[in-house]
Design a protein that fits this description.
By secondary structure, this protein is an alpha/beta fold. Helix content is 29%, strand content 21%. It has 6 helices and 8 strands. It has a 6-stranded parallel sheet. It has a two-stranded antiparallel ribbon with strand order 4-5. β6, α4 and β7 form a beta-alpha-beta unit. The longest helix is centred in the N-terminal third of the chain and has 16 residues. The radius of gyration is 16 Å and the shape is globular.
Length: 203
């Protein structure tokens, strides 16, 4: 039997969410943790990251925000190129299974969000591996929205999902809210929280 692998997925670590001046910025402790502790530790171990980012241009039914435009400052990621794989998945809604025509293309008009479950599954199998031998560690933004939806999508595909406690925050950045969400239903049905001190022992 193949030895279990641990793979990392970053979710929506884009300037519109992470930096002052970003359209959806709130001060969130996880951003500093990711940049100052997590990324250097993974780099030292030769571990690269898989990344899911957002193309949240309009049209987006149910959400009037017009953010994370490809080619613009707010679309840029905190994850440096050398720390991640080139094959980035670009979503158009909170669930990563939804993308769009011209996703990530600054010169092409963004189409309506479309469900692309088959290609998202292929992306996972190619880069992450099959569920039976892979644990996924999620980190990024936000725990009460896109990280939450990603955990659910991954669990439905059979993956064992861990959420790095120090590596995520809620939209508000409130620590009490985060602690509650990490340890109560419904999130615990789809993922398990793990602290950095425990995770680093596994690497």
């Amino acid at each position: 039997m193949e030895i279990c692998k641990i793979k990392f997925i970053a979710v929506d670590m884009q300037y519109d969410f992470t930096r002052p001046g970003g359209a959806c910025y709130f001060p969130r402790p996880c951003t500093d943790f990711i940049k100052s502790i997590l990324l250097p530790a993974l780099s030292e171990r030769g571990i690269r990251i898989h990344e899911i980012i957002a193309d949240y241009r309009q049209p987006r039914p149910g959400d009037p925000r017009d953010i994370c435009h490809p080619g613009e400052w707010g679309y840029r990621s905190e994850i440096p190129d050398e720390a991640k794989y080139d094959d980035i998945w670009i979503k158009s809604l909170n669930s990563p299974s939804w993308t769009r025509v011209n996703a990530g293309d600054p010169d092409g008009a963004g189409g309506l969000p479309i469900a692309d479950h088959e290609n998202f599954t292929r992306w996972l199998h190619k880069g992450i591996g099959i569920p039976d031998v892979t644990k996924i560690v999620l980190f990024g933004l936000t725990l009460d929205c896109c990280v939450f939806c990603t955990a659910q999508d991954l669990m439905f595909r059979g993956y064992d999902v861990l959420i790095l406690e120090e590596g995520t925050d809620t939209r508000s950045g409130d620590g009490i809210e985060k602690e509650y969400l990490l340890n109560k239903p419904p999130l615990i049905y789809w993922a398990k929280p793990i602290r950095w001190d425990d995770l680093i022992i596994m690497l």
